[in-house]
Amino acid sequence: MSTWYRTGTVSVTNGSKNVVGTGTAWSVMISVGDVFTLDNSILYEIQTITDDLHIVLDRNYEGSTATDQTYTIIPWSVKRSLNSEILDRINKLLEWAHEIFVTQWTTDTNGDYEVSTTLDKNVVPKVNNGASLGTTLKKWAKAYLTALSINGVDILPTTTPTAASIPIADANGDIDSGWIKDTSATVKGVVKVGSNISVANGVISVPEATEAVKGVVKVGSNISVAEGVASVPDATTTVKGVVELATSAEVLAGTDDERAVTPAGFKAAFGEFYPIGVTPTYVDANNFTVSGDLTAIFTQGRVLKITDTGGTFNAICATSAYDSGTELTTVTVAGDTIDSGLSAVLYAVQQVTGQIWESGSNANGTYIKWADGTMICQKSVTTNNITIAWGTLYQSDSSPVGTFPAAFIDKPYCNMMWEQGSGGLAIPAMASGAWSETTGPNIAIIRPTSHAYGGTVYISAIGRWY
């Protein structure tokens, strides 16, 4: 076979040397030693030809199991079929050369012998008196063989051959140093064809690079090439180039104007982001619904960017719950209220659970709200003289704690401390009423002896604002 054979289709099995053909005539069209390939990149030597429909490879098939596949068999064994003819010609050449060099020396008028440049075997080659007979014969044999070909195949090519097994002779006719070698950092040679490189009719094709395929790219105007080395400039706001990635600390600092931020770096600095808008449906001032189960995204502490009739503002996701019956997620917001003109929610913009969301003061005291829902309220109450007998103790008139500076969603934990105008042991206590989400009870000061001074009770309440 002198041409590539592709008739029919084949079935291959991963991990097996056996190949099964359909519509093939392998027993007459191919030879042992030919090359089998399914994708023109990974090559196998044909070890056995069982019949027209069955061959055995030199090693197990490495690709995926497949049926009815196109294939190619390359007539690699053509060089083997030529061996006997080449040897016959070389032997005849050596016999002829022996006869010429031993029995038919020819001397020119100067008595010197030169290598003939005529490649006609009937013209006697001449050897310089000072030259080695073996070296001269070797050079002449190379010139002779270079001019020969059998069935269109060069016996000794003068240029790099396409077949990796054909040697290249050096200037002295030696082929030892001319074998094609594997490529290394210092040697140009052969490399294995990758899956993204195709081979057809002896031509290797490399695709253009895409997001999914490694390949060649066109050198842009901002890339320079000198002595085979491509130089890429540093990236700027107007030039594409090389850029260093920013660390989480640099992202948070927000001052670096040279480094780039990746999605992973952004997440490491700010947490999960879901900058995708959803279409909300208004329920009431603190609730809206969205389609589908989005509880994994609308998590407590997420900052929501909300647009309604009043404009665009930020609020915090307090809770979210999915109803499988309606297939809706109900989201409860805190930190602000929404109106019936609700039109858009940019959900889960940022999670800021460790940051202060709001702080302030009013006539009822001061408060601090954290993004995770924690709130601390502080206020003070003035008490009267402690002169009212209470069993063996004395107490002051009761004074109302009143309203907290901001409302809790549940009863808070409270602590009271009394600061008196004059020395002596005293304890603040609840006189009547109860603690609630918005107000405190009436309190009084108790001590073992009568005391004609009042004082101030400082109250701290800790709870949740959403």
As a percent range, the share of strand residues is: 35-45%
How much helix, percentage-wise, in residues?
Answer: 10-25%
Most strands sheet: 7 strands, antiparallel
Report the structural category.
Answer: mainly beta
- Radius of gyration, in Å, reads 47 Å
Number of strands: 30
Mean model confidence by pLDDT? 76
Strand order of the largest sheet: 6-1-2-5-4-3-7
Please work out how many helical segments DSSP would assign: 6
Task: Give the overall silhouette.
Answer: elongated
Number of domains: 5
Note the gap between the termini.
83 Å
Poorly predicted sequence stretches spanning 5 or more consecutive residues: 78-82, 101-132, 161-166, 176-180
Explain the overall architecture.
This protein has 466 residues and is mostly beta strands. The protein folds into 5 domains: 72 residues; 96 residues, no CATH class; 39 residues, no CATH class; 76 residues, Elongation Factor Tu (Ef-tu), domain 3 (Beta Barrel); 93 residues, Sandwich (Immunoglobulin-like). It is built from 6 helices and 30 strands. The strands form 7 sheets. It has a 7-stranded antiparallel beta sheet with strand order 6-1-2-5-4-3-7, with no helix packed on it. About 10% of the residues have low confidence.
Topology diagram in text:
Blueprint: E1 9-12, E2 18-22, H1 26-29, E3 35-37, E4 43-51, E5 54-57, E6 66-69, E7 72-74, H2 78-81, H3 83-103, H4 133-146, E8 149-150, E9 153-154, E10 198-200, E11 203-205, E12 224-226, E13 229-231, H5 248-253, H6 263-270, E14 276-278, E15 281-284, E16 287-291, E17 302-308, E18 311-323, E19 328-334, E20 344-351, E21 356-362, E22 365-370, E23 374-383, E24 386-390, E25 393-396, E26 399-403, E27 413-420, E28 427-432, E29 439-447, E30 455-464
Antiparallel strand pairs: 1-2, 1-6, 2-5, 3-4, 3-7, 4-5, 8-9, 10-11, 12-13, 14-20, 15-16, 16-19, 17-18, 17-20, 18-19, 21-22, 22-23, 23-30, 24-25, 25-29, 26-29, 27-30, 28-29
